[in-house]
Write a structure and sequence with these properties.
single chain, alpha/beta, six-stranded parallel β-sheet
Length: 207
C-alpha cells in the first residue's frame, strides 16, 4: 500500500506496519462524501488503491444505526446553549461510539486489513473495534498539534481547560497505540511531535 515512501523513524519500516491487504477501511467521523481537505485526501487515496487492485471502503458513524444517529447527534444542539464544551464532548463521544459499532460489524468478516483512520476519534474507535493485531490501525495527521487546539480556536472549549486536557490525554493514549502514522506534511509532523515527542516511536511516513 503506502510502502514506497521512506519511514521517518528507525523503529520499523512502515511497510511492515501496513502490508498489502485485501482491503483498506477508511474510518472517519465525517460523512463519506464532502468537500473538506480530509475528503480530498482519502478520495485520492482510494483512487490510487483502486489503480493498484486494492479494494477499499469508507466507514463512518452513519454506516451503523442510521435511525438513531439523527436524534442522538441532535442532542448536541441543545447542549451547546448552556455549554459549548459539553457539545464537543457529546459530539466526539457519540461519533466515536457509532463508528466503533460500524467498524466492528465490517471487521467481523475480515481477515488482515488496514484501517486508515482520519482523526484520533476514528483511530480510537478502530483500536476498540479490531479483532486482533492482524488488523492494523494507521492514522492520518491532518491537524496541527492537537485537535484540542482546533476546538479552542473555535472558542468551543477553553484552552488548557478540563475538556482540552482530556482530549490531549486521549490523543496521547491513542497515537502511541497505533501501528503507523501518515503525516500529510512535514509541518504536521513537526507540530505534533513538538507537544507529543513520544509519538516519534510510532512508525511513520510523510506523504
Amino acid at each position: 500500500m503506502l510502502t514506497d515512501v521512506a519511514p521517518t523513524n528507525a523503529r520499523a519500516p512502515l511497510a511492515e506496519v501496513t502490508p498489502d491487504a485485501p482491503e483498506v477501511l477508511v474510518a472517519t467521523i465525517l460523512h463519506a462524501t464532502g468537500t473538506t481537505g480530509v475528503h480530498t485526501h482519502f478520495t485520492q487515496l482510494r483512487q490510487h488503491l483502486d489503480s493498484q487492485g486494492i479494494s477499499s471502503r469508507v466507514v463512518t458513524p452513519f454506516s451503523w444505526g442510521m435511525p438513531f444517529t439523527a436524534p442522538v447527534f441532535a442532542v448536541r444542539l441543545g447542549l451547546q446553549h448552556p455549554s459549548t464544551a459539553a457539545g464537543v464532548v457529546w459530539y466526539r463521544y457519540w461519533h466515536g461510539a457509532f463508528l466503533a459499532k460500524a467498524l466492528k460489524r465490517e471487521l467481523r468478516s475480515c481477515g488482515p486489513v488496514v484501517i486508515y483512520a482520519q482523526e484520533p476519534v476514528a483511530a480510537q474507535a478502530a483500536l476498540r473495534a479490531r479483532s486482533g493485531p492482524h488488523q492494523k490501525v494507521v492514522m492520518a495527521v491532518h491537524f496541527p498539534r492537537s485537535q484540542a487546539d482546533e476546538w479552542a480556536r473555535k472558542k468551543l472549549i477553553v484552552a488548557n481547560g478540563r475538556v482540552y486536557k482530556a482530549i490531549q490525554d486521549m490523543e496521547r493514549e491513542v497515537i502511541c497505540s497505533l501501528d503507523g502514522i501518515i503525516y500529510v506534511s512535514h509541518s504536521a509532523r513537526r507540530e505534533l511531535l513538538e507537544w507529543m515527542p513520544e509519538a516519534c516511536a510510532v512508525p511513520s511516513v510523510v506523504v
